[in-house]
From TrEMBL:
This is DNA-directed DNA polymerase family B exonuclease domain-containing protein. One of its GO terms (molecular function) is nucleic acid binding. One of its GO terms (biological process) is double-strand break repair via homologous recombination. SUPFAM superfamilies: Ribonuclease H-like. Residues 4-70 form the DNA-directed DNA polymerase family B exonuclease domain. One of its GO terms (cellular component) is zeta DNA polymerase complex.
Length: 119
């Protein structure tokens, strides 16, 4: 069991778990509105780019780490304090961009991973 002080902390632990297991396939029941899609929408509301952070696609911090010669692990261990992250307001576009994507199981994309709808 994992106890977290707030939702942001819970999402940080979830993202670390996904990245540490590094699955090729992510499966869920009703991906768009019931599992991963719901989590992504909630994270977006909190200013967290969940789908980008659990993807295998390099993001800006990872590219900077390679260019600077600093190992990625050191950068992830020295992230901003939780209080700074909590005060930041980052808005991202809607997770599921269109109604067709929402109704035809094509709206949730995680770079480098296969997302399967189990239903």
């Amino acid at each position: 069991m994992l106890l977290c002080s707030d939702e942001r902390n819970l999402f940080n632990h979830f993202m670390k778990a996904i990245c540490s297991f590094d699955p090729d396939i992510i499966m869920g029941w009703d991906i768009q509105s019931g599992s991963l899609g719901f989590l992504a929408e909630r994270a977006s509301f909190l200013g967290i780019s969940l789908l980008n952070k659990i993807s295998r696609t390099p993001s800006e911090p990872k590219i900077a780490a390679r260019d600077s010669g600093i190992p990625e692990k050191e950068i992830s261990d020295n992230l901003l304090p939780e209080s700074v992250i909590a005060n930041a307001v980052i808005l991202e576009d809607s997770i599921i961009e269109d109604e067709w994507g929402r109704t035809h199981a094509s709206g949730v994309h995680v770079g480098g991973r296969v997302v399967l709808n189990i239903w």
